[in-house]
Backbone:
């Protein structure tokens, strides 16, 4: 029986197979025929249809803010990813570990369990996302020495202080990559009177985006629709535009870090001041993030070696050492 781990993210889903590593790395998208309700495509293929599909095809992002918004579509998307790992037919139902944000409700946890079982899993266990990210980033989560992880995903930013295998302090905000994209879209609409889509906003964020001015300024030409004429328009954005556009949501992320620090016991806070703050997730790759965190908190910040893979890597470590790390799992359910 295969044992697999799933980083079920708002923006991307990664599937880790024990003994093989990360096998699936695809956007959390599904394209559905609105008449038959049949899932036509998932992952990269579905995302490529965004903003281009005809009226009878709806492109969904079935997770919002780190939780399931479209149950049936999530189950079908996961089933498609399972088949990429196990084959076209699931003869051997896998045992699965799935990550969830630490502050989700019991109802939301059950939705993840049920969708995973519906997708074809034999059993499912949950792991809180900050713990998985910390393990994947190489932090000593089982040690009595305190450490801090800031995981900036697509739908949520999870901040956690860890010690002795558990979370001692935490903070979470539904502000992450998606909201940064929305902020860029709104900025371009207000300042340049041009409408752009999510893919364009995400592209400029990744290519010329930054959160601190102490970086090299770059420019990028983008295309959209003029809000007044409805005709195609071309504008040029630079790094300072993106910094300004993302300022408010980035400040919310910084405030979440400060709240977690303020609620940390003094002894563990001293450890964090010595060892620094580890950042993971796609948002950790924004230029100048470590500089901004240091300026705002006085604590050095570091970017994980594989920021996009930390959660999946962490689940993989747990899969490889269930005897020692099984205590971090919860809500085991099977069929």
Residues:
């Amino acid at each position: 029986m295969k044992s697999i781990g799933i980083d079920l993210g708002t923006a991307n889903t990664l599937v880790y197979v024990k003994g093989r590593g990360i096998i699936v790395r695809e956007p959390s998208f599904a394209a559905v025929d609105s008449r038959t309700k049949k899932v036509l495509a998932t992952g990269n293929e579905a995302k490529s249809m965004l903003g281009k599909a005809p009226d009878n095809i709806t492109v969904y992002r079935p997770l919002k803010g780190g939780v399931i918004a479209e149950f049936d579509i999530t189950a079908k998307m996961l089933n498609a990813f399972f088949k990429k790992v196990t084959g076209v037919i699931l003869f051997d139902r896998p045992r699965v570990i799935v990550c969830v944000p630490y502050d989700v409700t019991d109802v939301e946890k059950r939705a993840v369990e049920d969708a995973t079982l519906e997708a074809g899993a034999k059993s499912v266990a949950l792991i809180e996302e900050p713990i998985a990210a910390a393990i994947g980033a190489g932090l000593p989560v089982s040690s009595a020495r305190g450490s801090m992880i800031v995981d900036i995903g697509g739908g949520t930013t999870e901040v956690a202080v860890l010690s002795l295998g558990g979370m001692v302090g935490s903070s979470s905000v539904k502000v992450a990559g998606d909201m940064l994209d929305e902020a860029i879209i709104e900025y371009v609409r207000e300042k340049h009177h041009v409408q752009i889509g999510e893919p364009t906003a995400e592209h400029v964020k990744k290519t010329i985006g930054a959160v601190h001015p102490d970086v090299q300024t770059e420019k990028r030409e983008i295309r959209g629709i003029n809000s007044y004429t409805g005709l195609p328009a071309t504008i040029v954005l630079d790094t300072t535009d993106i910094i300004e556009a993302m300022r408010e949501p980035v400040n919310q992320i910084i405030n979440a870090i400060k709240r977690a620090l303020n609620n940390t016991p003094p002894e563990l806070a001293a450890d964090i001041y010595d060892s620094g703050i580890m950042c993971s997730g796609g948002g950790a790759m924004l230029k100048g993030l470590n500089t901004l965190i240091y300026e705002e908190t006085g604590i050095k910040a570091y970017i994980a070696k594989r920021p996009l893979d930390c959660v999946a890597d962490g689940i993989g470590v747990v899969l490889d050492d269930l005897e020692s790390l099984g205590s971090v799992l919860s809500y085991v359910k099977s069929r």
Summary: The first helix runs from residue 43 to 47. The chain has twelve helices and 19 strands. The CA atoms of residues 63 and 149 lie 23 Å apart.
